[in-house]
Amino acid sequence: MSSSENTDSFEAEVVVVGAGLSGLVAAAEAYNAGRSVLILDQEPEASLGGQAHWSFGGIFLVDSPEQRHLGVKDSAELALSDWLGSAAFDRVEDHWPREWARAYVAFAAGEKRAWLHSLGVRFFPLVQWAERGGYDAQGHCNSVPRFHVVWGTGPGILQPFLAKLAEGVDAGMVRYAFRHRATALLTAGPGTDAAGTGAAGAAGPHALPQSVEGTTDSVIGLSGDVLEPSDAVRGAPSSRTVVGTFTVRARAVIVTTGGIGGNHELVRRQWPGGKAPGYLLTGVPASVDGEFQFVVAKAGGSLINTDRMWHYPEGIHNFEPVWPNHGIRILSGPSPLWLDATGKRLPVPLFPGFDSQGALRHIVATGYTHSWFILNRTIINKEFALSGSEQNPDLTGKDLKLLAKRVLPGSIGPVQGFLDRGIDFLQAGTAAQLAAKMNALTGADLIDGEALHDLIAARDLQVRCGLGKDTQLNAIRSARRFATDKLMRVVPPHEMLAPEHGPLIAVRLSVLTRKSLGGIQTDLRSRVLAADGAPIAGLFAAGEAAGFGGGGVHGSRALEGTFLGGCLFSGRSAGRAAAAEVG
Ligand SMILES: Cc1cc2nc3c(=O)[nH]c(=O)nc-3n(C[C@H](O)[C@H](O)[C@H](O)COP(=O)(O)OP(=O)(O)OC[C@H]3O[C@@H](n4cnc5c(N)ncnc54)[C@H](O)[C@@H]3O)c2cc1C
């Protein structure tokens, strides 16, 4: 690196923009292939690893030993059928996303687990069932449980790649540059070689080619701002004060800048149909700003499926926020009643954990910004989990003693903190008292206490009769046929109003922003494609910025655990392809 008058300039064979999981995987692959790598990130080193550090570490695997041990009969054929049923690809631009989907499912059913295992990644043996569905055989969701939680959660999946890159730093082949925010791609037109020695780069050894907007010429580097040093803790917003500029000359640029979930303005602008809820919680750090995707578009890269997003309706306010409006997602078992803001049950099959997008759409269409889970102490004890590494200290810390407590009655770990201190959690002895508290919380008399009591009592009558017509109760009974659910996720159906299961609990749920399903269009080698379908030389994209591959590998809906996996698969592909192109 050279530096003068607050201008840094770097050279590397491969530059990776964004030090989240996809960037780290891509960088590790390029280093493995013998390339010198520069990794840029706008955040301080404290936030290394991006969103993956915060993640629950759920990974989509197909026909794994863990599944087989639990008696689950999975196959690549079934997984692909589930994927395509959920994705519902229906656009011309879905060509590459569909190709990515096929390749990714084959990876998840093939070498993915063995590859991760060889890197030291291990899994919690009790596979979880995310997105249970409730539609027909060709509809959305998983037919079987596939959500494998990494032992060590998010930090556990980052660890091998960080270790590999630390080795590269020691070898002088890998460098990190934190507080470096990329703002432009440098391109060179025909007649310019990959090192940028043509007309655009002819003014001297460190002179750089000009940035050219709106072309599909070769990418030969990038430029940006150096931000002032920051002591912001992991995930907290950091200052955007610019103290200098930088340029990088590279033979390949890999864009791994993440999605848009931290940028509410963009989320609202791209919301399908334009009618985003009036109030949103934020489920990702503020660094997930989506800005760099537009830089790629300016350089000719094609952005597709930007209206496809994966936000959650089950968000609660974090009582210890790290980033502004910090929300946490409840991962609920199937027993709570899910009511809209006016106290009506959501339609079948929108039970907790069945079809989060379906529930989201339904709730948003009511015109209110919240909905409710109604449950009791028995249900919360067993069925409430929270997404995020910090909310699961047993799995994150690989603490077997703490983990054993999960199956003990009455021990609900971090959920207790929300019950005690979370503004969304209400408790009462009767439905009428609960309704009064719900109305007080929202400041509107939308919940009728008598109607709430009748609704729960009618459900309880169904429990008492043993058989019954209530689809949710039948779904609960069906879930308990699977060992993990029976052991740690689903309580036996019981009368919710029975005092021994009380108190009653209401949890106000708000919409929580999280993932982008669309993004930069790429081919199977992670090469960024222009609108005419031609690859842009020297430019690659992976992870959430690339819609986890192709510009939208999930189509309209995801099966869960597919995001970290998408970062692994597309990051690996980008790192390998960039290294090969450089060679
Ligand atoms: C709480 C939580 C739980 C989750 N749980 C799961 C789960 O269990 N399973 C699952 O599959 N997925 C899960 N996810 C989603 C998954 O973690 C993310 O989709 C994934 O980690 C995204 O990785 P990425 O590398 O694409 O982007 P990011 O992690 O967002 O990294 C992008 C990086 O790029 C940097 N950057 C952005 N713009 C610039 C720029 N212009 N210049 C320089 N740097 C820039 C950012 O600072 C950031 O460090 C979870 C996410 C969260 C937040």
From TrEMBL:
GO molecular function, a single term: oxidoreductase activity, acting on the CH-CH group of donors
Keyword Oxidoreductase in record: yes
Protein name: FAD-binding dehydrogenase
Gene3D superfamilies xref list: FAD/NAD(P)-binding domain
Keyword annotations of the record: Flavoprotein, Oxidoreductase
Domain FAD-dependent oxidoreductase 2 FAD-binding positions: 14-564
Record's keyword annotation contains Chaperone: no
